[in-house]
Each structure stands twice: as C-alpha cells, then as structure tokens.
Queue: 2 jobs
Job 1
Amino acid sequence: MDPLEPVGAPVELRIDSATGVDVSHAIVGPGGRAYAFMIDWHIRVVLAIAWYGAAALLMRLGEGFGRSLAIPTDPSGRWLLTVALPAGAIYFLYHPVLELLMRGRTPGKRIAGVRILARDGRTPGPGALLIRNVFRLIDSFPALYGIGLITTLLTREHVRIGDLAAGTLLVYERSPQAALPARTAWDPELSELGIELIARWRELDPAARRDLADRLIARSGQPAVGGNDAAADRERQALLRRLGGNEPA
Amino acid sequence: MTARSERRDAALRRVWLTRANFWRDAQARLEALRATGGVEAAEASRIAEDYRAIASDLATSRRIAPQSRTREYLESLYSRAHGELHRGAIHPGYAFWSLLRDQLPATVDSLRVHIAWVTALFLLSAGAGWWMVSTYPELARLFASQEMITTVERGKLWTDGLLNVTPSSVLSVQILTNNIVVSLFAYSAGFLFGLGTLYIIGINGLMLGSVFAFTAANGLDGRLFEFIVAHGVVELSCICLSGAAGAAVGESLIRPGTARRRDAFAAAARRTLPLLVAIVLLLLGCGFIEGYVSPNPDMPLAARIVIGFGYFLFMVALLRGWVAGRSRGSASVD
C-alpha cells in the first residue's frame, strides 16, 4: 500500500494500458453496494408482486372466482406456471439476466452510479457474470446476504465471494457530463497563439500586438474589433481570453 | 516552480481546455460505437486514434489540473474508450456451441480425478447410510420425516399417487428448480476449502443409502428403484459432477500453486463453468422425466431403465462434446 495515500481515500483499481496512461476506477465500498442492492431489491419485489397481482387477478376473473389475489388452496398447474413461476423468475433471475443484458449494470446500479467491471478494466463477459451470480447462493447465506456483507467489509477491494470467483469489482461510474469547458471556436494551435499573445501583451509593441490580435480574431471567424485606443485593446484582449478557453471549474 | 514554467503551465492549461470540442466529438463517436455495437473500419481507426489522444490529454490534466472536474471528465472518457476498445466481440450462438464442443470436454478431462473421488465419496456415504439404517433401523428418523416413515410402514411409497396431488408440469418445475439449486449450492460451497461441497455430497449419499435401507426393510426397495431409475441415474451423476467442480474450486484455495489464492480461485471458477452449464441443462431433462415418467404408474420398468440409461449415455456424449459435433478422435482442448 502506498504510504503517502491519504487516510480514507477510496481504493482505486488501476489498469495499465497500451498508451502508458493507466485507467483508474474508484472501487465501491459496502455502503455503495448496499445502496445499489436495496434499489434493485425494491424494483424486483415490486415487479414480482405486480406480475403476481395482475396474473392472479386475470386468472381468477377468467375462472369466475371474482377479484381474489389469495393463493388457491389447491393450486392448478396453470396457476403455478402462469402466476407463481414467472413472479419467482422475476425475483430470482433479475440480477443474472439484467447484468447480462445491461453489460454489468442493473437499474439499481445505474441509479447508484456504479457498475461491474472485470479486473482488467473490461466489461465482464457472460461467463464471469454467471459465476458471480452462482455464488450469490453462498453470499446470501445464512440470511440477508450475511456472508457477502462480511466479505465486503473485510476485503480491501470490498468484494463479495461472487466477485472473487468471477474476477470482478464494483466501481463508480464517472459521469462524462462533469464540467466540460464550453465549446470554443478555436482550434488548439490558434488558441495557443492567442494565449501566448495575451501573456506577452505588455512586452510587445502596441501596433504589432494590435496587428497580431486582429489577424487571430479574423482567423477565428469573429467580427473584427475597430479602433486603436485603449478601450479597443481591452476588447481585443477580452475576446482573445474568451476564445482561448475557460478555466476548469 | 519558476515564473517561466508557471506561465508555460498556464498556457498549456488553456490550450488543453481548447480540446473540449475534440473530447465532445470523441465522446459522440464512442457513444455511437456503444449504441450500434460495431462501426466501419475507418471509424474504428478514428476511435483508436481518439483513445491515444485522450490518453495524452489525461496525462496532461493529471499534471497541470489534478483537482479539476475536467480531469474527472477525461478520466471518465478515457475509461470508456478503454472499455469499448478492449471489449471482445459477442457471438452468443458460437460461444455456446464452442462451450459445449471444446470447453466442456476439456473441463471434464481436467476434473477426472475430482469426479472419481467425489463419486467414491458419494458411494461410500450411500453404503454407510445403508449399513447404519440396516443395523440400527431407528436411525431412519435422522433422514426421513415422520410422515414418510408412517407411509412406508403402511406398505406404500411417498411417491405413490403423486400425480393425483400435483400435475406433472408443476412437479417437473418444482423438481428441476430444487435440483439446480442443490447442485449450484454443492458447487459454490466449495469456497469453504472444499469442505462445504464434501459435506453436501456426503449427506446426499447418506440419505440415499439410508432411505434405500429403510424401504428394503419394508420390502419396498424394488419399487423405489423403479421410481428413481428413469431420472436418478443422471440426477445423481449431476450431483457428483457439481461436487467435483466444487472440490476443484476448493482445491484451488488449498493449493493455489504459484498463483495468488484469489487468482487461482477465479481461474478454477472460470474453468469449471462449462460443466455447470451442462449440469443445468441435464437437470432440466431430469426434471421433465421426474415429472412425467417416474410417477406414471403405467410406465413399465423396462421402459424406465431404457430411459434412465439412455439419458445417461446422452450425458456422457454431451460431456465428451459429441453432442455438439466434436469427433471421437479429437485431441483434448486445454
């Protein structure tokens, strides 16, 4: 462990890449995992109950028994196969099916801003996701994900046994919408010249700097600034700064 | 830091920010790739160039603006580009066929010793269960419910008239669900250094032997055999196979070799996955047979034996990859 790592800093997964610049992901702790799990749990419970309620109601109405949602004392094969079995399948197959279809995500994980990732930084394949879900049987043992919770608390990368077996991690998904600078009209080369010009503004002869500024502004497609007085120079500098790019927020 | 280098960094910082247009376009290209799953060669080449350019911008940002949200943005964009570029092509049909044709036989070959030992444990446990209940009949209560015992003592099997109580379709689904859960549990319990798996295999063997001994004491063992032969041969084989896979997972934790325990565990889980898929497929068939064939009183014993051993031969062919088209002379795939 890095001795200079700040206390309480999130554990990171760093992956070497061909470019020489590593890819980093912040690993989700037990709290983040529990948050995503609880959202998913509520979704699958609601979906399973909704299926059960709708199918049971339709079946009972079709059989002329009125609006009853009660489990029949002598359930028929049709009732079990169309009402109980799909509801159970929704509840128990929610994670494996959605993780496969959504490539390591579920609705709960998406809301919590987390996703499953293989240790090499790739989206885990179907095999890894299946293994991860097979070991849910052990992680959920004896109740309330007891073993899974203990292992996420005890392991440095906060993984449950299913993750250990599948070679996966739960990481935070960074939002790509975070504070991107405003769209600029200049290409980088032009911008560099503009910035350099502002930096050397005082050192340059007034006529030369005015001439350079006007040529850069013209190349950027902006309307020319007229006049040779101080106010016009200030306007030229402001325009160069604005076109040159924003400071990071 | 000198005034000159500060000025250079400030300039670099502004130039770096003017790259925002490029980042946006690169992000749009990545999103298009993600949405469509594939792009033309020229576009793919452009995305690879984007990846290198984003890496360069990110490296700059880590140096000149490590705390900025723009660096966060670039981290996100870079990790997305990395994920998209390194994502393997997905061909579900081919992957499944390849799993059954090549990976499954290789897995079974690598687990031969485990399969032999777990099967031996199962048979020994069954023998022990038989001996225990034959010698001390009161021990049957350890493995059978009171209702089951009463039914057998009245000269009937608890499976008699099963179809009068539960339809075949429901019975099939209940049984196959239960069998799959038991098999997967026996496998994943291998995490406890193999002890969990061995415990489950041992208990199942003890139960089978003791129930047979108990029914034999009441003259019903022949009828019990008649009930289970159609589905039981493959079902019990599947339990042994899942136990063998679980034992291999446990062994990877006990003897990881030169690899780290974590890596050896993940490798063992990955290696045994094809066998688990085959077990689930086979148990679907067992559930069907146990729901429709085994409880059917009109099904003659000969037909049951043919179904049971025929399905066993199918299982062997599946495990050797022959069902998926692997020729008998093929070398094993490691």
Job 2
Amino acid sequence: MQPDNYCLYPEYQDRFCLISVFRNPDADVSNVQDDIAVCYGCERFKKIASRGIGRREADQAIGDAVIKLMQQLANKNDKLRQTAAELERTVEQLTLFKSIADSIARSPSLEKSLRIMLTGATSGDAIGFNRAGVLLVNEYTGVLEGKCAVGPVNSAEAEAIWPKIAGVPVKQLLDNILAGIVNMEFTLESAVKRARIFLSDRQNPLVKVLSRSDNEAVLLRVADCGADSATWWPNAAEFAVVPLKSEQRVLGLVLADNSITGKPFSAESTEALRSLANACAPGIENSILQQELFLKLKELERVHDLLRANQKYLVHHERLADIGMLATKVAHEFKIPLVTIGGYARRLKALASAGKIDSALVEIIIAEIDRLLTINSEILEYSRAPRLDVRECDLCELLTDAVGQLKDKMTGLAIETGMEFHKEKLKINIDPERMRQVILNLVANAVEAMKNGGRLTIRTRQDNNYIVIEVHDTGDGIAPEEMDNLFRLFYTTKSNGSGLGLPVTKKIIDDHGGFINVRSRKGEGTTFYVHLPVPDSVDKKMEDSRT
Amino acid sequence: MPKVMVVEDEKNLLKLYKDELEDDGYEVMPVECGRQVMAALERFHPELVVLDIKLGDVEGLEVLEQIKQFDRGLPVILNSAYSSYKANFSSWIADDYIVKSPDLTELKESIRRHLANC
C-alpha cells in the first residue's frame, strides 16, 4: 500500500484517500474516507486537484467516486439480498424436510414413509424433481428392489396429473398419504417395482453407489445401470442417485430425474436430495425394522405353535411308549384271570353233569370277568388322547354324590365320613364324568385302606390359582418305598387290584391342567391332594387339548 | 390219601386247584404266601409240592431251592403262567414245569406221575 493511499487526517488515517479512486478506477471503495468536506481542506487533494484539474473536474471526480461507492454498496446489498434469498430457500427446504421427517415418524407403514419422502423430492422449488423413486436393499435375497416411485411416466401423463396437484400445498399431500388417501396413481411405480439388481453385481453403478463410504449424490446414465433398466425407469436418459443410509445400515437408493421438463441437474438440487435422503433415513429404517420385527414375531408364533403341537405329540408318544410296555404287561395280566375263569368254567361243566352246581364258583367267574373288563376299560382310558368334555359344574355336589355312591360300603366297614367345603358352591369347569371317576378311585382306595374302620375326610380349599381337594383316610398308610410306584401302571400291592386306578386318575387330573400329590405315614393314614386350576386358566387349557 | 401242597398267590386259582385236586382224592394244603412255605412243609409233610413261580412276596425259584435243600427227594412241580422261566437254569432242579392253563389235565397227570414214582 502506497503512503498516499491513506487519508492524511489523523481521525481518518486508516481509511483510503479519495485520490486512490482517481488513480485506480477499480479500487475497492469500501474503506474510502467519504467525508468530502475534509478533502477540500486537504493539502494532497489540493495539490493533485491543482495539477491542471479545475474545481468542476474535481467535483466530477468526487461525484464519480461516490457513485462507484454507491454501486459497490448496492452490489453488496444485492449479495446480501441473494444470501437472504438463499437462506430463505434453505429455511423453506428445512421446514419441508421437517414436515417430511415428522410425517414419516407418524407413518404407520414403510410404503407410506417412502411415498412421503418421494413426494418431498418432487415438490418445492428447492428440490422439486420431476420424478423420484426408491430402491431398497433386501438382505435376505441379496437384491436391490424397486419399492416406490412418484411422478409421471411421460409428458402425456404429466400434462394430465400435474395440474391436479399444482395448487395443493405439500403439507396437504403428506397428510393425505398418512390418511391413506391416494394423491395419484403413478404408472412409474409399477414400473420401478420391476427393478431387481443383484447386490453381487459389483459392476453395476447403482451397487457401487451403495458401497461408497460417503453419501454424495451421483449422476448416472440409466442405460449403464443394467440391461433392463429402461423397463423399470422408462423415458429417462439419466438420473441423480443418492444413497439412503442410516448410522447402522445401508437401506437403499433414492433416484430422481427431470426427464419431463428437461431441467438440468443443479448442485443445489442434488445436494437437497441428499439432505432429504439423510433426513428421512432414520424414520424409514424404523419402518423397515418394524416390518422385520413383525415378520420375526409371526415366525416365532408359528414355531411356538409347532413346538406346542410337538410337545403334545411327544407327551402322547411317551404314553404310547408306556403303552408298548403295557401291551406286554396286559397280555400277562390277562392270563391269570383267563386261566382261572377257564378252569372254573370247566369245573362247572363237570359238576353240572354230576348235578352239583356251586353258586360260589359262578360268583368267582363273574368277579374275574369284571376284573378283566375293568382292566380293559382302564387300558382304553389310559391310552386315549386327552379329550375332555368340559362343562361348568358344582364341585361340592360332585364330591357329595361320589362319596354317596360308596356310602353303603363305608357303613358296613364302620367308616365315618366328613365333608369340609370352604364354600357352599364351588363352580368349576371340568369334565364331570371323568372327575367323578377320579373321586371314586380315591375314595375307594381310602375305603380299602380302612378295612377295620376309620374316618374319611374330604376337604376343599383355595390355593392361589387352584382349588384343592383333599381326600384323607385314617388307614394303614403307604410305605415310603411304595410312594414312587403309586402312579405306575399295573403296580399294586393288593392282590385283587388291577393296578390301573391311580395312573388313570393322575392322567385325568393332568389333562385338566392340574396335578396330584400325596402324603402318607405308615399307621397314621394317607391324604391325596388334587389341584385343579380355577375357571379362567382351565378354559385356555381345554381349548388347547381340544385341538 | 396222598398229601399235596399247592403254593399259589392268586386266591381264586388256589381254590380252583384245591377243589379240583380234592375231587381227585388228594389231601390238599393250600399255601397263599411264599414265606409260609417252609413252615407249612414242616407241619404238613406233603408228598409233592405244586409251586407257582411268580409269588408276590418272595421269588418262587428261591423257595424251590429252599424246598430242595430241605428234602432233595420231594417232588416239586413248577406251575407258572409264563413259559419264560424254563430258560432259567434255576428252574431245572424242579421235577416238572407246567405252564398254567384252564385245562388242568396236564398238571394232574404230572402230579399223578411223580407221586407214582416215589
């Protein structure tokens, strides 16, 4: 900087001298000393001005300088106005993007989220592409698939549809999408849905964009993106492509073009497209994750159902394995009674011819046959699949009836009975016939144990989600070594028992969703505890066993 | 009358054997419980024992051995619902093995034969 470029006056010493305007017409006058009155008193100015330049010329020169100054200021103003306009546009764009991001956050479906984003890409001045589409990565199939597109497929369609949506504010279009109102049917969408690009096709420029580490937009020629690209993105020579990426994963690509109006791609619009994609990516990832979660949940449910069916099959199968063993045992168990019956029958025949029939013999035959029939029906009962005929019953009534059936036998053996119900009426959903069988079995066992008299007590109580029936006898009790074998098929210490009573009892209780256990002390007596689930939980198990 | 002991834990079958054999002229001592066999032997002094193998309380084959130890020459006829015990060599010290049947002919024949031999 030459010394005479600065003003000589101390208070303006950091400002340029007006002289510099004379010397250099292109000088930057933003820092010029503009108090002209001062110049008239300045020695340097007077010296230069007096070099053959008259006062008028000096005034003219000063005037020019002022005009230039004002022009520069006006330029700066223009620049500021331009910047303000740009800022306004940016704000408009951000507002638009915010509405879009909000709408996506509220969107119930992936499809709607995508459509919202693409509507954003094809509207507004900042971004406003003619057409936009989305391809999503399908990780399971390893394919980039076309999912959605917005925009006319050709000029003819553009002429038909653009006027319709011209006046509608973007917010309205977005709300329509959320509400499920279709703004427009786009042929382009059915076309783009045909896009299938294999992720393994690394040469495909679209696949290359996916693998880039940045999110920059690229301009690609449609024809370069696959042999069939014209079928899924028709009537366009090139498109802008921007990756759709979240923090965690690459979701896909957003495509956009101006093939209808032919408006050239600008850095501003592709940049806006990129911003739009980035803003929408989290919401879209959310929708994708939700969808995946839903599918996984369905799969889990299916597997769970399979497992339950399998479990029932296994339990049934276990029983069938038992039954295999059972068949052998049955064959043996049947033999003795058959031998006995047969023997007596022959004897009867011999006696009949000699004229002596002893009715005691006949009774024995009848008893043995009954024994066989009992074994038979209990085998059938044990090996059948669980199928209960559930009805609402009063448990107290059922218990009283069952005990009543054996009343005579008990009086004969001097057995007292006591019924202690915790409620007068106990409503429960059970199969009454089978449950009666259970009670009869337990009571009969109790009676058997009290051959020399005693007391039978039947008690009910509530225990959390179960109603408990207690059958207590003051009989001989069960030895500890026999407790394990109580519920085993054909196991009995009684020579007349068929050995099937308790296993069937246990099975019936299990089928109701309950359980049975027992406490006993030799010489003191035995108590059986039958737990039955209360009404609501039973219904569900009944439904299961009915299927 | 020849004395025959019948060991059988099935009450009704025991009665059948008793009735049938008594009709044939034998004096029958019925024994329901395997544990009672040796005591009954000493009291009753049978000339032949019909022994069931599957007794509730003790192993029939053990009782067989006990009887044979007591008196080697006392005929014991094994009477079982199963034929499988024939393969068990412990059963071979018995004098005969009859598989239970509604038809008692075979059993009676065996009893007659073994008593005749003594």
